[in-house]
Amino acid sequence: MWPELHESVFMTDGAYVIGDVKIGAHSSIWFNAVVRGDVCPIRIGEKTSVQDNVTLHVTHDTGPLDIGSNVTIGHGATLHACRVEDFVLIGMGATLLDDCVIEPYSVVAAGSLVRSGFRVPAGMLVAGVPAKVMRPITDEERQTIEESPENYVRYARNFREGRVLEQARER
């Protein structure tokens, strides 16, 4: 199996996408991220950012990894054979284990561990090790969930057009 990436997907040097992987329009895979669908499928929707050092993986007996559209996966997160629905923010360093489900407009706090089979209800913030439902998300958090995908589409466009390097040279 070879990955199927929409022509608008942005992928940096050092990122790896391997096996039965499909990635939707305007999504981005950043530095040193690994999307490893070598033994089971991985599906990523549109406008989803897989940030630096993220690991997305499955095993042959755990089932697929499904990630919706407009999802932000923070630096260093690990997602394994789970389902993340649309409009979700996964914090830096979070770990999501097999068969957990993250419903729309939810936030998984940085450093959290979402245990196997746990379901995060729509519109909730979960945090901790293991992650527990803490409270409904705030209006500000909802706005961040909605703005973050658009920010990463813009960041990818800036990289593609060489603007990031120009800005760095100007400093």
UniProtKB/TrEMBL annotation:
It comes from the Bacteria. Gene3D superfamilies: Hexapeptide repeat proteins. InterPro entries: LbH_gamma_CA-like (IPR047324), Transf_Hexapept/Carb_Anhydrase (IPR050484), Trimer_LpxA-like_sf (IPR011004). PANTHER family: DYNACTIN SUBUNIT P25, GAMMA CARBONIC ANHYDRASE-LIKE 1, MITOCHONDRIAL-RELATED. This is Gamma carbonic anhydrase family protein. It comes from Chlorobium phaeovibrioides.
